[in-house]
Amino acid sequence: MGDDLVQRTHWGNLEGQNWAGLARLSTEETEGEISSDATSEEAGPRFITGRDIKNTEEQERNGRGFVGSRGGRYVHTYTQPDTSAWKRKRVRLPDGSLGYCVVRPVFEGALEDLKRGKAPNGERIDGLIVYDIDRLTRDPRHLEDAIDTVEHYHRPIIHITGTLDLLTDNGRAMARVVVAMANKQSADTARRVRRNHKARRDRGPYLLVGRARSDGRGITTPVTA
């Protein structure tokens, strides 16, 4: 279908198209916000991302509904549970040297399948849908890989929230800005988390114990563990 496929997707017409979804949920503590149910002193604070997203199943359900409502057919889901789209790891590069990059084999495999037009289950795929741009990536390198898939292989990648797109020049320019800011946000959060952990280590282990006074007020007394 070539450019026509991207153009039709831009118009919101997915009739006759097969779509796959990429569902990512991260509990990487360097990416998100403090979870309200994380109160264990031993476990430390638990951080989550995409607070409007409960789980990967919900992302898949939303993707199916979005594609179906526009006449398309949803045929496969690439699932990435507990996967960071930001944190870089030390890896061996093809030339034998060491480097740092975000490791996401499912994401990379999804792009390769999309270029070939075939999902792991043998179904033809014409496009890839995610819930939001930060479910796709928070890494500028991976964003460029996604943009190349759209521009040079003419395979659309869209997301449900509709605030950005990779199908137009303006949309791609805005996506680069948003991913750069999301990358900075993750770096800022990581720095705060590291400082918080260091401060807790420097203070040493302690337990907070509440005690009620006769006047009805409570106090909190540090007790050495």
From TrEMBL:
Molecular function per GO: DNA binding; DNA strand exchange activity
Listed CDD domains: Ser_Recombinase
Top-rank lineage group of the source organism: Bacteria
Domain Resolvase/invertase-type recombinase catalytic: 19-206
Alphabetized Pfam families for the sequence: Resolvase
Gene3D superfamilies referenced in this protein's UniProt entry, alphabetically: Resolvase, N-terminal catalytic domain
Xref: SMART domains: Resolvase (SM00857)
Xref: InterPro entries: Resolv_N (IPR006119), Resolvase-like_N_sf (IPR036162), SSR_resolvase (IPR050639)
Name assigned to this protein: Recombinase family protein
